[in-house]
Amino acid sequence: MADDKLHTLATQLGTALKARGLQLAMAESCTGGMVAQAVTSISGSSIWFDRGFVTYSNTSKQEMLGVSNQTLTQFGAVSEQTAVEMAIGALKNSRAQIAGSITGIAGPDGGTSEKPVGMVCFACSALANATLTTTQYFQGNREQIRRRATAFMMTMLIERLNEFK
Q1: Is residue 72 in a domain?
Q2: Residue 99 C-alpha from the chain's centroid
Q3: Which of the 8 DSSP states describes residue 45?
Q4: C-beta separation of 110 from 118 below 8 A
Q5: Is 78:118 a contact under the CB 8 Å cutoff?
Q6: pLDDT tens-digit map of 68-125
Q7: CATH, residue 40
């Protein structure tokens, strides 16, 4: 996936946020800040991008985003439940009105039969709206999985913003 696709999605996301007067916060684990990097590559993004959290360890998810130990123990770091708490934590710890989160297994190691390499969980939370979640299974090497997850997150956010006319 070429960088121009990520740039195009980041531009579309910024346009949608700016048109609605909203700011975005991101909580990223397996993508290591790729969404934040893509959106901040757009000139003027400080108007619509508030901040990003790269929370790779479980401890950072707990300390920075308020993910509960119970959630991590019961469901694991790679779960929709953790993704929800990450997105809600990003909202609570920012000035944003909408937040996205990504947690997954980019590989090449770390996968299991229940949670294979390429499994990525996403959440999108907006103030006074239900949090949406999904799990996707991406194919490819580590870099491809991370880029595909980044593109998917931005697409999910754009689609969510389309609900805010």
Answers
A1: yes
A2: 8
A3: G
A4: no
A5: no
A6: 999 999 999 999 999 999 999 999 999 999 999 999 999 999 999 999 999 999 999 9
A7: 3.90.950.20
